[in-house]
Amino acid sequence: MPRSAQDSERFVEREARIIRTTREIAEREGWPAVTVRRLAEEIGVSQPILYRHFPGGRDDIVGRVVMAGYAELATAMEVGGDGPGALPALIAAYLDFARAHPSTYEAMASARSGIAFASDDTPEVLRRGFELLTRAVGGVDARDRAVRAELLWSTLHGISQLAAHGRLDADLDGEREEAVASLFRRGASA
Questions:
Q1: Domain ranges in the chain?
Q2: 3-52 tens-digit pLDDT
Q3: Which end of the chain is less congested by CB atoms within 10 angstroms, N or C?
Q4: Does the predicted model carry a pTM greater than 0.85?
């Protein structure tokens, strides 16, 4: 039997609440604290209700957090537009996102998931984020732009992870971001 519009709205709202609560717990206490039982308790529903929304349980929920994180990151990286300040703005936005949402970023970078990267099955939101990187770094042709974008992404990921574990001097963040932009501005002739 089809759901009523009201039931469908409640279903969507509950899913959003599950994702939001998952992120809140993870950001506050880390991913080990996120369990289906804990989520059910926090939200005030039974575990079977959570499984009705996410049949794969915690892995499905984390997968949705990952996709939402990539969507937010892409939106944040769009702030710079296409002008001369685009690359430094994108770099700052990426690193700011990783600093502001360390557990979400951790899941985006390392959670087990069925999300396909660099393939025909790559979700649109990931393609959008990669396209932003590609446009920002330029290059002589599509292959060169893809390599440069992967290198920028890898660099930003490394900086994010080192900073998250206290391995980098936070007082140097601005200079580090400008140095990365400078490296990728060179040879971006296209």
A1: 1-55, 59-190
A2: 688 888 999 999 999 999 999 999 999 999 999 999 999 999 999 999 99
A3: N
A4: yes
- Over residues 60-119, the pLDDT tens digits come to 999 999 999 999 999 999 987 777 788 999 999 999 999 999 999 999 998 877 787 888
What is the Cα–Cα distance from 7 to 15, expressed in whole angstroms? Answer: 12
130-137: long-range contacts at Cβ-Cβ below 8 A with a sequence spacing of 24 or more? 132/74, 132/77, 132/78, 132/90, 133/77, 133/90, 135/82, 135/86, 136/80, 136/86, 136/87, 136/90, 136/184, 137/87, 137/184, 137/188
Domain spanning 59-190, CATH architecture: Orthogonal Bundle (1.10)
CA distance 141 to 36: 47
Angle between helices 124-137 and 86-100 (to 10 degrees): 140
What whole-number distance in Å separates Cα of residue 72 and Cα of residue 70? Answer: 5
CATH number given to 1-55 = 1.10.10.60
Residue 37 neighbours by CB distance under 10 Å: 10
* Alpha carbon separation from 98 to 38, 43, 81, 132 (Å, rounded): 25, 26, 20, 17
d(CA 184, CA 148): 8
Identify whether the C-beta of residue 163 lies closer than 8 Å to the C-beta of residue 109. no
